[in-house]
Design a protein that fits this description.
Elements: H1 4-9, H2 11-20, H3 27-64, H4 67-102, E1 123-128, H5 141-148, E2 151-152, H6 153-159, E3 166-167, H7 169-189, E4 193-194, E5 200-201, H8 203-209, E6 220-221, E7 227-228, H9 233-237, E8 244-246, E9 252-261, E10 280-290, H10 295-313, E11 317-321, E12 333-341, E13 346-355, H11 359-364, E14 367-369, E15 377-378, E16 380-388, H12 389-399, E17 407-408, E18 422-423
Parallel strand pairs: 4-9, 8-14
Antiparallel strand pairs: 1-11, 2-3, 5-7, 6-7, 9-10, 10-16, 11-12, 12-13, 13-16, 14-15, 17-18
Helix pairs in contact: 3-4, 5-12, 7-12
Length: 427
Amino acid sequence: MHDLKYIRENPAKFDAAMKQRALDPQAEYIIALDKTRRDAQTSLQEAQTERNAKSKEIGIAKKSGDDDKASEMMEAVSSLKVKMAELESAENIAAAKLQGILETLPNMPFPDVPVGLDEDSNVEQHVWGEIPTYSFEAKQHFDLGENLGLMDFESAAKISGARFVVLKGALARLERSLANFMLDVQTDENGYREIVPPALVRDQALYGTGQLPKFKEDLFHTDDGFWLIPTAEVPLTNLVRESILDEAQLPMRLTAWTQCFRSEAGSAGRDTRGMIRQHQFSKVEMVSIVHPDQSDEELRRMTGCAETILQKLGLPYRLVSLCTGDLGFGARRTNDLEVWLPGQNQYREISSCSNCGDFQARRMKARFRENGEKGTRFVHTLNGSGLAVGRTLVAVLENYQNEDGSITVPEALRPYMGGLVTISADR
């Protein structure tokens, strides 16, 4: 949600930010709606004051026996009630329109975010690791998994339809091992507090983090009013909804491993084979709730925490700064980590780490009180994958594949795999 005061005082800057998001100017319309709402509110308050005054006059007139005066005041009060109802309606209509536009406008990018329309304008910051070479033609993960007999899309389709998978044996354990490894690193080394949150949430939670109302079609909804979470960002961030924190509680760093559910409504025809884009997948999420002065530094820290996982697994990747046209709805700045997939011969996103500023906090009414201050300020919220577990499994399969179709288990995962060194067809 945007700060109306900022829009009133900086209309040109706001419109420039929306233009970077490929949107038409919005400030003039927003300011006009806000003025209509505020004028109606002021007139309503004045009418209420006048009504109260005339109601007192009625009592005084009746007490003094001045029936004509009392009758005159009663007619005036009756007219004021009609006027007040009209003003209240006008205020509510303007407020609803204002809310409707504000809740569907994306966050403003930071001034130094690269400007561009789409991913072609994203900026590579650095590359880590060497791209592996093979004496054989590298296979994609779904061919490797199916040939091992441990990745079953056909059975999943019978059970649930397209964009699902059944993992078996060593690959099932590999997914569990990856998640446990990620959680251990994020909690033991990086200072995140592990949370087990609900996977079903109400409207308010998704509204707070910005998925509703704009992205309703991307979500799964139950018949009794719940939504399946698209990411643990939703329940983790909403832990501070409608709260006033003490400054000493900041920063809050939370992590969770959950199943995530997305309809992939806008992905028809994309990544239809394999595990890259599924309706159900697991992810280790990181969320930070911080002082506004610390959010950019926290983004650097969070990105580094995600990079640590890739480095420990020995997976080549690159860090990319997203341009204004490729930012997510709630983000002011985003760093993407893209892992190298030999089977596809390209980098693919495995983590997005975003600084949302106070955008989500305003929607959630999440504040903090600075030491020694009476007033409150909105916190800043950040979120990032640490990492997407399924995509990390894909990256391990493709980067650690052998000519015979077996998979070498990365050293960091062997303790979690019971000492297993190689995943082969008989496992």
